[in-house]
Design brief:
There is one protein chain. This protein is globular. The longest helix is centred in the first third of the chain and has 24 residues. The N terminus is likely disordered. The chain is built from 6 helices and 16 strands. The strands form 4 sheets. It has a 6-stranded mixed β-sheet. Strands 5-1-2-8 form a 4-stranded mixed β-sheet. Among the domains are: 135 residues, Immunoglobulin-like (Sandwich), CATH 2.60.40.3250; 158 residues, Collagenase (Catalytic Domain) (3-Layer(aba) Sandwich), CATH 3.40.390. Helix 3 packs across helix 5. By secondary structure, it is α/β, with parallel strands linked by helices. 19% of the residues lie in helices and 27% in strands. The structure holds zinc ion. The site of zinc ion has 10 residues, from helix 6.
Length: 425
């Protein structure tokens, strides 16, 4: 009995430590920081664009100064007086994907990026670092923010779009909060959008381990209205007036659907409790994209809507890599073979120990011959991350590899579960 009491009191301490830690440095609002990232294939720089205050905080209240998954970039907030790191987060960007394309060899481009931080009580220093080709995080901007600065724009207090909770696992402060937002749906199509949002939410929560952690998620359907129905398809010279200006043919890849209007997204949903974003595009053209801690964007009219939205959420929420590969790739240099990728579900065997080595049966050959797949459910199978050679995946098939596979592989499942716990416990 004493043992149980002791465990219980330690648990209580951990709970109050997290609450104290948050309350010590932050108020219950969001500091949204907008940046412009720019450069070419060899250079990258970041400039501060706009600071915003949002009326509530819907991000994590646990493990505040830590990062579980590295990302292609990181943002850190330090208390200006003590220098102590009080919040950190990781992300990937469309900009860095673009840097690996042929176009980036001949021209410099700029991309919008916005990050949600808990609103500090006192002056803070914010630092953004980007990962280089060698896997090192290099500081790209460092600036001070005074939370009393009158030029921090107050957003989300009015003109908040209609939204409904389509899955409520718990209160905002205890859950991962996901906004599902409409792109290419007119005002008359909102009933259809709400149905699609419910399908997306159910598809995600039907997959393991989400199905065992439903009480840790809130999903909100946000009715952002577009002037035109459908989204832009540049290869067909079809340009639509939509709320987020998304289009296919990103980096000249037919099915890659993205938007570069990141500020429009965040401005549209300011005031809604969200930390993660799923954008549903009203079209039957196949495609989508998911960028870690940026957004998932996917199409709802295609027969593969359900597996694709779950796959893209695997990218944007959990930082999972693509486990598929093909010969003619638009991304010329996504994963250098001398660097261990930060994503948990692929490896170059540069530092496999940090990956899923502890999930292998003791006699599993590394790499594992695909012919032994029946013997080893988890192995080290060659072909992943867009390359048929030198990059390895944990299983023959996975939601991160094909639309026909029903589940995430065991390594992806573990990675998702770890992240949900990191955010909520
Ligand atoms: Zn997997």
């Amino acid at each position: 009995m004493r043992h149980i009491l002791l465990i219980f009191s330690v648990f209580l301490c951990a709970l109050s430590a997290n609450a104290q830690e948050y309350d010590e440095y932050f108020i219950d609002k969001t500091l949204r920081v907008d940046y412009i990232f720019s450069g070419g294939n060899e250079s990258q720089s970041i400039a501060l664009d706009q600071l915003n205050q949002l009326p509530l905080w819907a991000g994590r209240r646990h493990n505040l100064p830590e990062v579980l998954r590295g990302g292609n970039g990181q943002i850190k907030m330090m208390d200006a007086q003590s220098g102590k790191c009080i919040y950190a987060d990781a992300f990937s960007t469309l900009f860095q994907e673009w840097q690996t394309t042929d176009e980036a060899k001949t021209v410099r481009k700029s991309f919008e990026n916005s990050y949600l931080l808990p609103y500090p009580k006192s002056k803070v220093v914010i630092e953004v670092s980007l990962r280089n080709k060698h896997g090192e995080y290099i500081s790209a901007i460092k600036h001070t923010v005074d939370p009393t600065d009158i030029l921090i724009k107050k957003a989300g207090l009015e003109h908040v779009p209609a939204y409904t909770a389509i899955h409520q696992g718990g209160t905002i402060d205890k859950c991962v909060n996901v906004a599902i937002i409409a792109e290419g749906y007119t005002a008359d199509e909102m009933k259809k959008f709400r149905e699609h949002a419910a399908v997306a939410c159910q598809a995600i929560l039907a997959h393991s381990p989400f199905n065992t952690m439903k009480e840790k998620f809130n999903f909100y359907a946000v009715e952002t209205v577009s002037e035109n129905s459908g989204v832009s398809v540049p290869r067909e010279n079809k340009w639509q007036k939509t709320v987020f200006g998304s289009h296919f043919d990103t980096f000249y890849s037919d099915r890659y659907l993205t938007t570069t209007n990141v500020k429009d997204i965040h401005n549209a949903i300011a005031g809604i409790p969200y930390a993660h974003i799923i954008i549903l595009a009203n079209t039957d053209v196949y495609g989508g994209g998911g960028i870690f801690n940026a957004y998932t964007l996917t199409t709802t009219g295609h027969p593969n809507f359900k597996p694709v939205v779950v796959h893209e959420f695997g990218h944007s929420f959990a930082g999972l890599a693509d486990e598929y590969y093909y010969e003619n790739d638009t991304f010329s240099d996504t994963y250098p073979l001398t660097v261990e990728p930060w994503e948990p579900n692929i490896t170059t065997l540069t530092n496999f120990f940090a990956k899923w080595k502890n999930m292998l049966l003791p006699d599993t050959p590394i790499p594992t011959d695909i012919k032994s797949a029946g013997q080893y459910k988890v192995g080290v199978y060659e072909g992943a991350g867009y390359s048929s050679k030198g990059i390895y995946r944990p299983a023959v098939d996975c939601r991160m590899k094909t639309n026909t596979c029903k589940d995430f592989c065991p390594v992806c499942q573990r990675a998702i579960e770890q992240l949900v716990k990191f955010y909520t416990e």
